[in-house]
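A quick aside before the break. I want you to see a complete sequence-to-structure record at least once, exactly as it would be stored in a machine-readable document. Don't worry about memorizing anything.
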Amino acid sequence: MALLEAILFSSLWAFGLGQLKWEQPEISVTGVRDKSVVISCKVSSQDFSNEYIHWYRHKPNQGIEHLAYVVTVPALKDLGGKKNKIEARKDVPTSTSTLNIRFLQKEDEATYYCAWWAYGKSVKVFGSGTQLIVTDRSLDGDMSPKPTIFLPSIDEINLHEAGTHLCLLEKFFPDVIKVYWKEKNGNRVLESQQGNIIKTNDTYMKFSWLTMTKKSMDNELVCIVKHENNKRGIDQEILFPSIENNKRGIDQEILFPSINKEVTTHACVKKGSDSLQLQLMNTCACYTYLLLLLKSLVYFVIISFCVCRRTAVCGHAKSS
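That is the input. The structure line, written in tokens, reads:
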């Protein structure tokens, strides 16, 4: 109920106090047990130095919990038996409030919200929330989503008068991710479908797809991916071509704003015959691998038998 109330308050603010811009840029932050993390909240206000900035957290199946608020000086709070576990601050030059959480434990995992109190209006405006994940070890290597794109097949377009664009994202951590679609140079978010997040070893994978009618496929599409481990903290923008470029078989580029074209993939589906050929090639490769593995196993058994037999014969001869 408390969370619903917060959303209602935010709606009231959006209706009557739209001059204030409020953003929690990170959808998630990951911290190591016993270490610290910082969650930030960006506020565009004409009088940020005097604003009351509150911090809350919400755990699954629990009510929303008030942690601290800050006006001018940093606010410290004991929590969970730890002294000064929570510290709320404001940085006036950047109009940013931060929440520092120390001595991390698994029970600290929750979604953390910053909130602004409109004095005299009894309205609290909540940010979008940042999810905290606590791990037992530091994460090495690139944990950003690795994209592969699948373009509509010509057969699908001709048969159904529509085409499905699919974006596969793999080998990312943590599992908090947001994927949405737009037309290139457009602002409207398109209605897309989202697959479940699947765990693969220590990382995750997810796919999202967008089906467009044949008449709507003249424009280029962009699949936008928000994740905390994106390079330089910038959203990935994955470009899908118009149907005409797809017919020409143009290679696809995975684009990062302000970054040169670092990643390139190819269209994985062109025509139905190509898809069938790819499937047959994969099947043949699988059977070939199994055959070679079986052959190696047979050789190993034969050699082991010969070595053991020779050892036994030699041992018997020596004892005689």
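Two observations worth writing down. The chain is about 25% helix and 40% strand. Residues 10 and 125 are 5 Å apart (CA to CA). We'll return to this after the break.
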